[in-house]
Amino acid sequence: QVQVVESGGGLVQPGGSLRLSCAASGSIFSAMGWYRQAPGKQRELVADITSGGNTNYADSVKGRFTISRENSKNTMYLQMNTLKPEDTAVYYCNAFSIIHAKIYWGQGTQVTVSS
Questions:
Q1: Is-contact 80 17, C-beta < 8 A?
Q2: What is the pLDDT of residue 74?
Q3: Rounded distance between C-alpha atoms, residue 26 and residue 19, angstroms
Q4: What does residue 114 show for φ and ψ, rounded to 5 degrees?
Q5: Are 12 and 109 contacting, i.e. CB atoms less than 8 angstroms apart?
Q6: Do strands 109-113 and 89-97 pair parallel, antiparallel, or not at all (unpaired)?
Q7: CA dihedral over 98, 55, 60, 108, signed as positive or negative
Q8: Could you give the C-alpha distances from 100 to 26, 54, 96, in angstroms and in order?
């Protein structure tokens, strides 16, 4: 079956860095993306990437976050630098399955930026 699993979250001080990973399996995936949801707020797009490597970022993370992927491993990454308290949220990965023609979501990983 299709699985999407995030890892790499944690607690970091303001100005610090974290790297999130997302491993997808059970299908062939085209677009993949990172979303986040802070308490009391709607889920929002952080960044996404096509299988060809085209990327898109939310304005709030441009210049600080970098999305990348290894197609051979169906794995996507989010390098987060210069983290701010407002980046605190649960970060979710999604992946579009070409075989099933639907989007699959991971369970989320908590990122907390605090001193």
A1: yes
A2: 93
A3: 24
A4: -160, 150
A5: no
A6: antiparallel
A7: positive
A8: 10, 22, 8
Q: In three state form, how does the secondary structure of the chain look?
A: CCEEEEECCEEECCCCCEEEEEEEECCCEEEEEEEEECCCCCCEEEEEECCCCCEEECCCCCCCEEEEEEHHHCEEEEEECCCCHHHCEEEEEEEEECCCCEEEECCCEEEEECC
pLDDT at position 4, please? 97
User: Which pairs from 102-106 meet CB under 8 Å and 24+ separation?
Assistant: 104/2, 104/3, 104/4, 104/24, 104/27, 105/4, 106/4, 106/5, 106/6, 106/22
Reading the block at residue 103, the tokens are: 């989007």
Q: What pLDDT digit, counting tens, does each position of 9-21 carry?
A: 999 999 999 999 9
pLDDT digits (tens, 9 = 90+) for 83-114: 999 999 999 999 999 999 999 999 999 999 99
* The pLDDT value given to residue 107: 97
